[in-house]
């Protein structure tokens, strides 16, 4: 599938097999946290739209992205209801915060870094849908493949906007955040989440 090859080329590493095994041991948390991730992705896009009202390309791309993420949130919630899984609060993975703590505070660096982080989070989500699809039940596998197809463009949207607003090459910043991302994915985590690292001591 061409969608996943571009994503795998962009990401610094593959999701470790140990994470996939961990996910299969926590099917309810996988769904609950996935729903949270879709909602947070919509929220991230909306926050950027509120903060950068003077950037038409950003408004157009992220408005569409936010609608898609909210639709997927509704779909995951529906899937959970059918399976008797209750949507509830979960503490977030350290993943997104681990990336965002390195975002520069002055513009345009703040916007560029935020967009690069968005690209990595979106790409990793898609890569995990692809990694999980062969191992889960048929209905969920079909849904993950649909999401992969539907959301595979998101990381490219974020990256394109980052390049557009940087005013200079962003290769070094992208490489920096990729290194951070790889460390988060491959280091141990205490609790299982959709974006957690390796199974830790728990």
Describe this structure in words.
The structure is a single chain. The chain is mostly helical and 202 residues long. It has a single domain (2-6, 17-196), classed as Ferritin, core subunit, four-helix bundle (Ferritin). Helices cover 71% and strands 2% of the residues. It has a two-stranded parallel sheet with strand order 1-2. The longest helix is centred in the middle third of the chain and has 28 residues, at 56-83. The relative contact order is 0.19. Pfam families: MiaE. GO terms for molecular function: tRNA 2-(methylsulfanyl)-N(6)-isopentenyladenosine(37) hydroxylase activity. InterPro entries: Ferritin-like, Ferritin-like_SF, tRNA-Hydrxlase_MiaE.
Keywords:
71% helix; mainly alpha; Ferritin; 2% strand; two-stranded parallel sheet; 9 helices; 202 residues
Note poorly predicted spans. none
Main β-sheet, spatial strand arrangement: 1-2
What is the assigned CATH homologous superfamily?
Ferritin, core subunit, four-helix bundle
CATH class term: Mainly Alpha
| Rounded radius of gyration (Å) | 16 Å
- Under the CATH scheme, the architecture is Up-down Bundle
The average pLDDT score comes to 96
Helix % is: over 70%
- What is the terminal-to-terminal distance? 35 Å
Main pleated sheet: 2 strands, parallel
Indicate how many domains the architecture comprises: 1
């Amino acid at each position: 599938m061409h969608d996943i090859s571009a994503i795998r080329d962009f990401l610094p590493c593959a999701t470790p097999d140990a994470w996939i095994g961990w996910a299969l041991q926590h099917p309810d948390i996988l769904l609950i946290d996935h729903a949270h991730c879709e909602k947070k992705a919509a929220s991230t896009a909306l926050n950027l739209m509120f903060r950068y009202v003077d950037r038409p390309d950003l408004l157009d791309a992220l408005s569409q992205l936010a609608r898609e993420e909210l639709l997927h949130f509704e779909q995951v919630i529906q899937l959970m209801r059918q399976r008797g899984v209750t949507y509830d609060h979960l503490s977030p993975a350290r993943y997104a915060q681990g990336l965002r703590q390195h975002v520069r505070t002055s513009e345009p660096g703040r916007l560029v870094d935020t967009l690069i982080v968005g690209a990595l989070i979106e790409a990793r989500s898609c890569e995990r849908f692809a990694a999980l699809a062969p191992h889960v039940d048929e209905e969920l596998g079909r849904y993950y493949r649909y999401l992969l197809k539907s959301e595979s463009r998101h990381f490219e949207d974020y990256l394109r906007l980052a390049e557009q607003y940087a005013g200079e090459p962003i290769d070094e910043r992208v490489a920096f955040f990729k290194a951070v991302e790889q460390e988060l994915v491959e280091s141990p985590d205490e609790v299982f989440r959709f974006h957690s690292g390796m199974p830790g001591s728990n």
